[in-house]
Structures are given as C-alpha cells and as structure tokens.
Design goal:
By secondary structure, the chain is an alpha+beta fold. The chain has 15 helices and 19 strands. A hairpin with a 5-residue loop joins β4 and β5.
Length: 497
C-alpha cells in the first residue's frame, strides 16, 4: 500500500513532467516583476484616493510574483492568492482571457508553487484588491505540501528545525526577524553617528577570555594546536583601545558550551562597545540612549507590552545598588558581611539554595537571580557588584570589595553588562590568578590567565568603559517573544535520534 506522502509526491512529479512535456521549464532562471505586491496594492489605493469616492479609475498594470497560497477553481473562472515577502494579493483567472489550453494548465499548479502573473490590478465587486490575470507562468514547482491553512505549522520542534517552513506557514515569523534586523540597524546607526567605529575581531581564540563561561574547543591541523570558539570579544576590543582607537563596537557571534533554556542558546549575538576616557556613570547615560534608539527604531514608541506587562521605557530609568535591591526584594542584607558561610546562611534563610562550591560572589549573584530579577519589570540599572564575580571591572571608588559594574533589566530579562574597565595590569593579573585558583578547584567557567592581554595593559590603556548587550534577548523583548529560539533564525537543537 502506498504511503499518502509518496502518492502526493508522485502526483507532483506527474505534473512536473506534464509541464515539461508542454515545452515549459518548471524551474525558471529569473522573472522580471514590475513591482512588489505591496507596491501594486498601494498604487491602486493612491489612484482611488486621487480620483475621489465613487469615481472609476483606470486599472493599474502590474507583473507580480510570489508563492501560490490558495487556488479555487469555479468552472471557467478561478481565484488564487499569491504572497511575496511583504504582502498577498488575490488573482482572478478567466478562461476567456487566458485561452482554454492555458486555463486548463492550472490543474498542474499546486499550493506552494511560485508563479509570475501579468495583468491589471483593480477591485472586485466585493471590494477585494485583485490582479486580473492576462498571462501567468510557473517559476518554481513545489514538491511538498504546505501545512494545512487553518492550523498552520504549530509543532515547536518542527518550526525551529525547519525554519523555512515556519516562515512560509506563519508569515508573522518574518515580521519578527524584520524587527530584529531593524533593531540592529538602529543600534548601528546610533553608534556610528556618535563616532564609534565598527570593527571585527577573531572568532578563534588561543585562550578563551572576556567572560565566565565554558568554551567550545576545536583543533587547527596546520598549527597542531587547540583553539576556542569566541565566548566574548572583550579582550580583543580592549586591545584596540590600547592600540589607539577611542570608540569601537562589534556586533558579534559568541559561543558558550552551556545549558539551553528559554533565555540561553549556545550560539548567540552580542553588541560590545568600548569608549576611552569614559566610566560606568557616563556609560549608563549612553546605554539609556542606545536602548531607547533601538526600541523606537522598531516600535516607534517607548511604551509597549512584553509578556502581559506594560513596559514604559521613557528616561530616566530606575537605578538601584545591587545590595540595596537585595535588601528590598529578598529581605536580607548581604552587604553587612563578607564571610562566605554567613552569606550562605542568609541566602538559605531567604529560600535560595547554596551549594558548597559557591563563593561569596556567586551567592550574591544567585540571590539576585532568584529574588531580584523576577521583580524588575520596568527598565532598571543594578550597579556595584562584588569583586569576586567581576574580574575585568575596576574596583569601586571608596569600596574595593565592589566593582564599578552595572546591568540593565527590562521585563525580567537581563539585557546587558557594563564596567568601568580594569586597566591596572597588576590588579588584572591578581584577578586572573584568583580565577585560575577557582578553575583548579573545579569551576570550569572561571576565566583563564591571558598573558598577552596583560602585556597589552602594561603598554597602557586609558580610562575606558565597556558595554555588552544581548541582541537576542533584546529582540525577545521587542517582539514579545517568551523564548530565545523565537528570535534566532536557526537555533541549536538536539539531534533527532
């Protein structure tokens, strides 16, 4: 017994052969459109507006192309719909206009085929904007059926694994990725207008640095050495500041061999920037401006909804010291002690699990993640983090147990990380050595000692502030997406057994 899918494929193969038997090529090399569907629709609407209500207008000539998403045959007349990247339009096909042979050839078209059509755009008696077709041709034959119209493609795994099919079945997915692109463009334009230079740094690193994360390891055959996929571009970008650039940024892909959840993907995009002669106070102001430019660039407003919360991003944003936020939202005062065990007891008392491997800094971070972050709906800066979890940030003026570091939270999402950058090579070496000690104790996310980076700092780096923004999470926020996989076109997934 034949499988229905095999029968469907055979039917389409038969149609393919009939098309070729008529001397037509079912996979064209090109097709010249006169305009897009959206442009054709707009041209008609503008003509109607110019003519005035109730006045007849001359139909708009147009040659359009797109994927066939509907076809309904009614005797000697048929209606179809094609959709290109931006819009859809109805087609009216009549046997008297097309000729009997060409009209009968419609039976060899299937939903999913790409077709080109020439005719005139006008409204039907029911008011539907329609291309009245005078000739058509197949441009590319689809060999598989699209998802059923009214139920679409809803299986999440299939949507992510076959993103191309997701886009075809759910056109709003294209809008989500257009919004992501618009967001990145707005950020790039903001930075370039303020004198930042866009640069590129290596993706293969001899030493993984710039973040606390497990790296992916690969091997270079010619050099016979292991290399690491970039976990962050930070140390290379700061080398550029040492070398003489004063404002640089990179929109970069990073790779971290870590767990996967709704906010983490092993391959993700960051925007990192560094500005000489700046500190974290000045950078907070610039960060607000950059975020607002991105939000308005996509949404046209600073007020929007994210996961049923109303976000108001008008400036200035709330600013909270990290320990102040912990007192407010967790009800404990971790600032009063630097003792690891005392901090663990306070955290446990607040309902935060602490394991034996966690030092003081990680305990503070765990309390923040579990008790503070879920409360941060409106745009909020948290600042002044423990030195133990900020190995690349300068010590806070007046309190060497803390660092001049801030993060931004909106809609309960952690969106960025920023510092007054540590430029003291002696202090930096000590911080790296402390990280190495943690690694030797089993912390496989602790940072490595990078001798070349220390050498760069010894040449001299001016006072500098740096910022890293999670592009994927910001895209989640601006497209009201609950999962990071919704805003990464091709997310990493488990292999199919």
């Amino acid at each position: 017994m034949n499988h229905p899918i095999d029968e469907l494929r055979q039917h389409r193969l038969d149609k393919l052969e009939r098309i070729r038997a008529r001397g037509d090529e079912p996979y064209k090399y090109s097709f010249q459109r006169s305009c897009t569907v959206a442009e054709a629709r707009l041209a008609l609407e503008q003509a109607e507006s110019a003519a005035g209500e109730g006045q007849e207008i001359t139909p708009i000539p147009a040659t359009l192309a797109g994927r066939l998403v509907a076809l309904r045959k009614q005797g000697k007349s048929s209606f179809g719909n094609i959709r290109d990247e931006r819009a859809a339009i109805q087609l009216f096909l009549n046997q008297n206009v097309l000729g009997e042979e060409t009209y009968e050839a419609l039976k060899d078209l299937d939903i999913g085929d790409f077709v080109g059509a020439t005719g005139h755009v006008k409204r039907t008696r029911t008011g539907e904007i329609t291309l009245f077709v005078e000739r058509y041709e197949i441009l590319s034959k689809s060999m598989k059926a699209l998802p059923e119209k009214y139920h679409g493609l809803t299986d999440v795994e299939t949507r992510y694994r076959q993103r191309y099919l997701d886009m075809v079945a759910n056109p709003e997915v294209l809008d989500r990725f257009r919004a992501r692109i618009a967001m990145i463009n707005a950020m790039r334009e903001f930075l370039v207008a303020r004198g930042y230079l866009e640069v590129e740094t290596p993706m293969l690193h001899p030493i993984p640095g710039g973040a606390t994360a497990r790296p992916f390891i690969t091997h270079h055959n010619t050099y016979d050495r292991d290399l690491y996929l970039r976990i962050a571009p930070e140390l290379y970008l700061k080398r550029l500041i040492v070398g003489g650039f004063e404002k640089v940024f990179e929109i970069n892909r990073n790779f971290r061999n870590e767990g996967v959840d709704t906010r983490h993907n092993p391959e993700f995009t960051m925007l990192e920037l560094y500005e000489a002669y700046q500190d974290y106070n000045g950078l907070m102001v610039a960060t607000e401006e950059l975020f607002c430019a991105a939000i308005e660039g996509v949404l046209g407003t600073l007020e929007f909804d994210y996961q049923e919360d109303r976000i108001v991003a008008t400036r200035p944003w709330k600013r909270l010291g990290l320990f102040e936020a912990i007192r407010e939202y967790a009800g404990i005062d971790l600032e009063r002690t630097r003792d690891r065990d005392a901090a663990a007891a306070l955290a446990n008392g607040a309902g935060v699990h602490v394991d034996a491997s966690m030092g003081y800094g990680k305990i503070v971070d765990a309390v923040m993640s579990e008790k503070v972050k879920p409360q941060l709906v409106q745009p909020t800066f948290l600042y002044d983090y423990p030195i133990e979890i900020s190995p690349l940030a300068k010590k806070k003026r007046g309190n060497p147990d803390l660092t001049e570091r801030f993060q931004v939270f909106i809609g309960r999402l952690e969106l960025c990380n920023a510092f007054s950058e540590l430029n003291d090579p002696i202090d930096q070496r000590e911080r790296f050595e402390a990280q190495v000690a943690l690694r030797e104790k089993g912390d496989d996310e602790a940072q490595y000692l990078d001798e070349d980076y220390i050498a760069a700092l010894e040449i001299g780096m001016p006072p500098t502030a740096g910022l890293g923004i999670g592009i994927d999470r910001l895209a989640m926020l601006l497209t009201d997406s609950a999962s990071i996989r919704e805003v990464i076109i091709f997310p990493q997934l488990r292999s199919i057994e």
